[in-house]
Amino acid sequence: MNAQSIPPIVMAGIALYVASYQLLIYVWRRDRREYLTFGLSCLAVAFYDVCCAGLYNAASVAEGAGWQHLQFVALAFVAVAFLWFIVDYTGYEGRRALYALLDNVKEIQAD
Length: 111
Fold this sequence. Notes:
The chain is flat, with a radius of gyration of 16 Å. It has 4 helices and no strands. The N and C termini lie far apart (33 Å).
C-alpha cells in the first residue's frame, strides 16, 4: 500500500461514518428527506474516495485506467446525489430541470 492512498481511505471512513449517522437519523425521522439524500451523498463520496485509493495503488497504467473510469462513474453519482440533497434541503418545488439533468446523466453513462 502506497502512502498516498492512506488519506483517501481515512476520508472514505469518515464519509461512511457520516453517511451511516445520517441514514440512521432518517430511519428515526422519515419526515425529513434531506437526511436520506445527504447520507446517499456521503456514500457516493466514500465510493469516490475508495476509487482514489485504488488509483493511487495501481501498479500499471491499464489497472489505473480502470480505477479512473470508476472515479468518473463515482463523480456522476456524487453530482446527482448532491443535487438531490440541495433540492430537498432548500425545498425547491420546480424539479423539472433536475429531472432533465438526470435524464442527460443516464444518457452519458450509457455511452
